Amino acid sequence: MKSGQLAILGRPNVGKSTLLNALVREKIAIVSDKPQTTRMPILGVGHYPEGQLVLVDTPGLHTPHHRLNAQMVQAALGTLMDSDVVYVLMDSQMPPGPGDQFVIEQVIQANKDRPFRAVFLLLTKADVVSKSRFLPLIEQLRTRYPWTEIVPISAKTGLNVPRLVELTFGCLEESSEPMYEEDFLTNQSMRQMAGEIIREKVLASTHAELPYAVGVFIEEFHETKKLTTIHAVILVDKSSQKGIVIGKGGSRLKDVGQQAREEMEKLFSMKIFLQMLVKVQDGWRDNPRILTDLGYGV
User: Fold this and answer.
1) What domains appear along the chain, each with residue ranges and CATH number?
2) Considering only CA atoms, which of 77, 156, 168 is closest in space to residue 120?
3) pTM of the full predicted structure?
């Protein structure tokens, strides 16, 4: 069998977490249409007849403006040191920009220190882009790096995902034994996943009103045979944001709680009692202690 570690890189909001979920074939990373949804690397293992793909979904590479953002970028770049294969994702709906070039430059530098077995350029969201656009886009990007392969994909529909899996295993070495047990999917604990699921539902329900200012801290995660009790604190920067999360008469917070609880019960296969409160914590994204408590420490 074959196995290897793969880093999934790209600027914010290019579909990295969607690809991770597609390759693991389970939802282990939250997804939203807001940039910087993924805040720390998430490890997921895809089990295939050919072997294992050990995938690391990374935060989007961007110019940091808070301590949280700086740690996100540092964590993303750190995954390159241990990776055999790199997936560089670019949104095929948009022309390549400075953010995409920054990602390529980081890969070039890391490859000098420790050469990769392969580097794939993945043009995401290919299901909504005409074929006539891909030819000039591929020609434009072909000279940016000696890519192992350029693959237009759609993780959402599965377009070319099987081909990507086949190409990737073709670059990996034989392994005498698997790196992880067959039932291992992710290194995230249920406590961590519960916090991320709540944050995903908040992001989805608040649309453009709260792009980055939400954090979720799980105060209590108490599991019994009959019921798991979860107490969560939703952090925001300002009092006005607290009202947005709670909604009129508490309606939005109630909807978020119901959606999060239903998804947790399906994912964890257990009955959940979920209690949430919203707390204003000015400047939490620059507070080292809070970032550590939230699991965002490097």
Assistant:
1) 2-169 (3.40.50.300), 190-293 (3.30.300.20)
2) 168
3) 0.86
